[in-house]
Amino acid sequence: MAKTRAAITAVGAYLPSSVLDNKTLEQMVDTNDEWIVSRTGIKERRILKEPGKATAYMAIQAAQNLLEKTGLSAEEIELIIVATATADMPVVATAAQVITALGAKNAFGYDLQAACSGFLYGLSTASAYIESGRYHKVLLIGADMMSSIVDYEDRTTCVLFGDGAGAVLLEPNTEGNGYIDEYLRSDGVGKLHLGIAAGGSLLPATLDTVAEKKHYIYQDGQVVFKFAVTHMADAAEQIMLRNQLTNYEVRYLVSHQANKRIIDATAKRMGIVEEKVLMNIERYGNTTAATIPLLLNDFEQLFKKGDNIVVSAFGAGFTWGAALLKWAYNSKD
């Protein structure tokens, strides 16, 4: 009997309409377009500005986009996982809100928090559910409203992040395509260099924590850059070695969109030519858990059935890793 693997069978996305470009940021903080582009590759990012709308809204829109493209009924979905670092509310699962809004009455759901690696870790989790045979239609969403935790007076972070959401549907596959292998790691030293100091059980919100801006994201750029370059590239290389893949056999690198220089370093370590390195960071910035599904959605037309795709990510915590996918379908468009 052929092994059952979890395969991505559909993608969807949502991006806010409001654009924050580098020229606008020049008026907000001491920075400039040339500096931002040369060090990050980012030219603009999307920001969700409508009152009363947040991460759950974007996740719902991405899921609805996927359902509309496929004609799938929400009632067919059995599980929804939302990878996010910016849930609308503490304790309340974003996934529960998505389920109710979609009318996915036969599904259960929960959130997964691994920062920028959240979607990659979610792929691992969703795939395990599919391979177990217990569930057959799992919706995985990566969504983050990073503008809600960014200090727009901090030039080290405000130039990096944007808002957005992407979704994928995973289903069983017995043709040899789907989620093949993974190399995932974590290191708690990351809390010293990238994270949010207050708002958790260690340092609950007070008037002082708010006044001291401890609820905004902070980053030690040099440390994070070096750690990300080394470990994300190593994870991608490990995936190739373990699966005996040459650089010619890897069709595309789908990497977390944090910094163009980090992506380029990963590709160089893998020996991947520029044409195989997919990027949209210049338009969206770092949307955290949404970057990988947004890439899959943007470049869906390129993928062919059987393509070897290496997915890699690095996030706060630290969390990082890589996975190998064999793409399971040819786009109909």
List the topology elements.
Blueprint: E1 5-14, E2 18-21, H1 22-26, H2 33-40, E3 44-47, H3 55-70, E4 79-83, H4 94-102, E5 108-112, H5 118-131, E6 138-145, H6 155-158, E7 163-173, E8 178-186, E9 194-196, H7 207-211, E10 217-219, H8 221-242, E11 252-255, H9 260-270, E12 277-278, H10 281-284, H11 291-298, E13 308-315, E14 319-326
Helix pairs in contact: 3-4, 8-9
Mind explaining what this structure looks like?
With 333 residues, the chain is an alpha/beta fold. Helix content is 32%, strand content 25%. It has helices at 22-26, 33-40, 55-70, 94-102, 118-131, 155-158, 207-211, 221-242, 260-270, 281-284, 291-298; strands at residues 5-14, 18-21, 44-47, 79-83, 108-112, 138-145, 163-173, 178-186, 194-196, 217-219, 252-255, 277-278, 308-315, 319-326. A five-stranded mixed beta sheet has the order 1-7-6-4-5, sandwiched between helices. It has a five-stranded mixed beta sheet with strand order 8-14-13-11-12, with helices on both faces. Helix 4 (94-102) links the parallel strand 4 (79-83) and strand 5 (108-112). The longest helix is centred in the last third of the chain and has 22 residues, at 221-242.
